[in-house]
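Supplementary Note 3. Input sequence used for the single-chain structure prediction.
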Amino acid sequence: MSKSILKLSVNGRSVEVAVEHYHTLASVLRNELSLTGTKVGCDMGTCGCCTVHIDGKAKLSCLTLALECQGANVRTIEALNENEMHPLQRAFAECGGSQCGYCTPGFIMKSSELLERNPDPTRDEIKEALAGNLCRCTGYMKIYDAVEQAAGELRKKEAPQPMPVKA
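The predicted structure, written as discrete structure tokens, is reproduced below.
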């Protein structure tokens, strides 16, 4: 079989990689680009561990053929915040939202998409947004708490700061 050249942007960097027609985006990210933060827990789209953003939308990379991403902008957990922990990452740690941690990148990527489009979600909206992601350790409540905490922190950062009063 012959390989095709896949051209896309991954975490803001232009990438060209030769792929077989059957390679998934998850396999390309992990095996060709060494971006192992994207986990693969099932290869069937049932766990959500492989969630990445493709053109701003949370997608399952284990079900996405790599060649479907020709020209796309892909963002993985590695690029969520390069200089310091993202509020979601910090909140997951502080709230105990990750125990074994395997599912955490998928939950964080799915949660970040939610908070980008809805900075003040209700608990029910968080549950609905994360419904496709599975966690075998936490029981979900700590995950929901972490998303709520991060949402509050992000809203504080985005709130306009009052102008200093001149004396």
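Helices lie at 25-32, 87-95, 104-117, 123-129, 141-158. Residues 141-158 form the longest helix (18 residues).
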